[in-house]
Amino acid sequence: MPLTVEDPDPKAMEKLVNGLRDACSRVGFFIIKNHGIDWAIVERAFAGLKEFFALPMDEKMKVHQSLSPSYMGYEEPYYTNVDRLSKGGLDTDCNHNRMTTGYEPELDSEGTGFQPEVLLRLNSWPDDTDSPFFKPAMREYRAACLSLMRKLTRTMANVMGIDESFFVKKYTYPVAGIRGLYYPPQAPDDEQSTGLGAHTDVQFMTMIAQDPLNIESLEALNASGHWIKPKLQPQTFVVNLGDMMARLTNDVFLSTVHRVRNQTGRERYSLPFFFGLNNDELISPLPQFITPENPIRDGYETGITSFEHYNRRMQRAHHKHYTATDKMSTALPKWMTRIDGVLVEGL
């Protein structure tokens, strides 16, 4: 069923909602089609990404993440450590190149055009003369993904049994990050190193396109403890839930552990789009997900913003960064936390 239909058939919507509820509670992953995104936009994004990664290393290093206070920019293989494995003195869970860019409020046609300064994550773009296609391609891809995610979030509200407008005031300047990834071929018999180590995602939902389509490297850990590989059809996206969705539903919906092992002998590119509610929005479990059978989970008693949760995770994973654990505060300044977009006194 298309997500972009204005007046969907009630029976079709009920089937969609029930299917999503089942997927979210069993594995936290699903695949979407009929999403309304012109696939030429995705193809241009991959072309721009390949243009950037083809740059000489000294050009990529000019926009290295270590130069950014907000974790934007380029990272070479093994710079980031997700699950803290080691092999021969090197972290082995991040055998990939990555380039991260973030939300630009002035370009969001459906947002407020504003974002509190403390939340801004300034992008580090390559020089247009060196990589003329990358920036416009990423901006076009971000706009398309952001529009779709706003629609999907309304559907997810139905899945949770709440009014579909529940989140509208909570994503007026959302998290909308793109992390372009290049995975070199990994030997089929290499069981030690990993393209991307086992982890959960920080935000609300992540939407992933990959190229080539038929490389099965993404693995998700299901509720039974088995690694499964989502099979993509042409012009589809994988969607996985993140930590903030799990917190909101008291872990009824799963923020699934996943990893990438590119044991195919082929190159793989992917474009995860990370969508989150406003970074200063306080997230706590909704009351309908707290029951005698499912009491509030440890650590969920106090609300948290995705700003703080993201910074904690980044500090641990980016242990070479100058903001690494214990070097800087992860919390929002006092009086900066909101509920439904409204500043809350004392928080």
TrEMBL record:
Keywords: Iron, Metal-binding, Oxidoreductase. The keyword Oxidoreductase applies. SUPFAM superfamilies: Clavaminate synthase-like. One of its GO terms (molecular function) is metal ion binding. Pfam families: 2OG-FeII_Oxy, DIOX_N. One of its GO terms (biological process) is small molecule biosynthetic process. Transmembrane segments: none annotated. Residues 174-277 form the Fe2OG dioxygenase domain. Belongs to the iron/ascorbate-dependent oxidoreductase family. This is Clavaminate synthase-like protein.
